[in-house]
Amino acid sequence: MYQAQYLFKTGASVFGPWMPRQADNIIIYLEGVSRSTGATLTAQLFHKDSETTGPGSAVSPDKATSTSSGVTSASYEGLKEFVRYQFSVSSKGDDDYVSFRMLPAEWFDSVNGNTSI
Question: Which of 12, 34, 45, 56 is least buried, going by the fewest C-beta atoms within 10 A?
């Protein structure tokens, strides 16, 4: 969970810290708090196994994208041992910003190949 974080400037991209997964699958919730007009925030989930080095790989296909105030979500399945978020800003101007929170995620395991919760 991230509280009231700011990202500035179009093209800005940052990674959060690695955290151990709590189940096979996750639903993440991104809340847009405030932003410059036209600024968009995207949260993408990355994962890797404990013995793997490097930045990990993006989990496809969903991304949580926030273009206004409110909560958006994305779900990911088949996660490896460690996960982290990448946050990216796109906007029209260099002085644009976004403020956001990541709300607590919902973790759930696959049961007999079924990922429904």
Answer: 34
